[in-house]
Amino acid sequence: MPVARPHIEPRLVPSADSVVVKEIYLSLQGESSHAGLLCAFIRLTGCHLRCTYCDSEFAFHGGKRRKNAEILEEVKSLRTPRVEITGGEPLLQPGVYPLMQSLLDGGYTVLLETSGAIDVRLVPPDVHKIVDMKTPSSGESSRNDLRNFASMNARDELKFVIGSREDYEWSKALITEHRLAEKPFALLFSTVFDKLHPRELAEWTVDDRLPVRFQLQMHKYLWDPNARGV
Fold it and tell me: Which InterPro entries match (predicted)?
């Protein structure tokens, strides 16, 4: 079981008015129920996991510390009502919590992409949380924080990235064990790009009649899967 962490109110942390940003850009949302919609992306630096299929290793280091107010101004210039905060693992930075609230206060639809290894209970409830479940092929499945199941609401989505039949069976068993189909949040299945053909996962899902949304990482088919800022 995960070790309990002390509750620290983000606004009391000295660096809560800023975050270290790797990049900010405009693109189409590539996955989740928001796929295909215009979206501004704020990618934060740093991650405590090292998943085998990670597609954003460039965000582990570097970047620039920026004030949240400055970030809001840049997002405003991109002229889209939808913003996703991603990483790395954005919840490692205390300033991300007031940043999300500021974006909500500005009238934006705010999405959060997070690893699933940190409890999302402090995330503002109006944020659309997209929470990963690390499957066995990630090498990090022991880091999943199952408290997230109780911290997610009907706006949220639990994402399984599947690279093998073992990952699929593990995911199916977790859905059954924790009765995830009865939870208010959606369940998403997608493949590890270039590791498992999407047709295989689609057929398994249909055969087992799983209550999940099958999805593709649209951006990896539209653009170079190793490209930045897309």
Answer: 7-CO-7-deazaguanine_synth-like, Aldolase_TIM, rSAM, rSAM_sf
